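dumping this here before i forget
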Amino acid sequence: MARTRQTRSPSPADDRGDVSEDEQPEVQKQTKSKSSGDSGRTHSTRKSARKAKKTSKVTAADNEALAKELKKQMASIAKQKKELAKLIKSHARDAKESGSEDSSDGSGAESEDSVDQDAPRFSSLGETVRPTRVRKRKVARLGSPIPAADETSPEPNHAMTNDDVDVNPSRGATPALTCHSSTSRAQRTAPLILPSSRQSSITPPTSRSPSQSASGTSSRHASMPASNIPPQTLIRDNSHASASPVPEFSNTRLRPRSTSTEGEDSAQKRQRRSHSPAQRQCDPIPYKDGKAPQGQRPKQGDYEKWFRKLILAAIGLYDIKLATVHAFPSANQQTIWARDAWSSVCADHQKCYADDDCRRVMTLIVSQGSTFRGHLKDRLRTRVLDTFKIVETPDGPDASGNSVLYRRLLEGSPPRYCHKIWDTESPASYGEHDMFALALREQFFRDAQDVGAVHQDKFNPIPLPTLALLFTVIRYHLDCYKDGQLDTSATFSEVDYRGHYAEHLQWVNHWSSLDPDETREVRTEIFRTVLRVSKVTPTCTTITRFSQDAEDRVRAELLARRRAREQAQSRAESDQSGDVGAAEAQG
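structure:
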């Protein structure tokens, strides 16, 4: 028996030398079994590789087919979404047009849209997406007469849908009402064929509402079984709505309407949507570090640069109130003026901020009141000293001279310092100081963009409270030299000078009441001087009124006309009563 030569790896027996004859069969047996095991594993590996290759091809083909199917489904969904959007838009436009027609005709009917705008839902790629149903319902008001149906008008055939069949025979069916739409558009009704299993289980309604009893169309379809109604579609014009009310559906498949009783329909009617504009979202306050500083006094450095410009504009409007209305307002009035100024600036720049976020801004604006009065005081200091010839740094005789001058300037009621010509026996030109125009120019009319130049109507003519404030500032500077020397401890505070401001306010009001026309002309001339020295173009005209003499003449003329008319009316009434008495006597 011939032996097969096989290649094998060297064994420990080979290292020791030749194998004995008894050991050779066992060694050959082990070598053969090892070789057969290796060939089996190689065959299994090749088979697995071929199977994996075949599986990968099948998987790739399936993936490609699945991708195509998915792409097709997504395209179909997108198309149906577009159709649904067009359908909703069309029905909304038709409802709006029909609503305007109903209001002009005065029919007393209200239209209410019940629009379900849920997005299309699907549980798997293979499920057909059902578009949202758009239904319009016409609700008759209580007390309105029910129109009788025209028996001679032809009844259109339409397909019975799930909405037309009442599955609860114990409940009265809801009357079929027409939907408002434009008469120029032809509406189609789509059939919804029910399966035989559902058709056999549906029973027609046994009770009808009064409006359905008066409608021939609804009574006919109520008596017909669902299986006998022809599924043909019908093009219906809305001009026959009053004769044959037919429910209107879209030309796509519809979902079954959730059934509800008439009581539930009237109690759960959806409220009309508000047509008022939506409130604008408030903007965040642009703090410099992104958050409001805690436990610190508000200052302009807390905000961004562009926001600080808005605050400065609001402060300018607040300063105008202090200068032209009242220099020392109450705390409540200060808050109101600050809020009005900030609201005006935000409206001009189309900004919106919450009230809670603007508390620090309000505090910052109100705190500028003392700053405004302090700046006005500084601008008048040197001019007061020059006008009244007060020595700024007196020595000995000059100090006593300042004291004498102070007492002289405070003589009279109003005092001498309120007049331009003060150093004579009879002071004259009350309130016509040249320093007033210069101080107002530096405070409000520095350039064409300053707050006074922008709001010239607030200073034309110069308001009486403005003159009172300027007189109060003059009094402060004179009080600083009451003892001849400069009193550095004196402060222009509300506590010390609110009373002086009230006195000057009474004096200027009395001065204006003596001759309103002439005093208005004086104040207008001061305003013109301010514009002239500021080189600002005037943007407002002076409001002219009747002079006192003209007003008296016109008032007397109107009074005479009234008396003449009343006398003529009384004579006519007496004549009429005399004629009636004569007629009665003759009768």
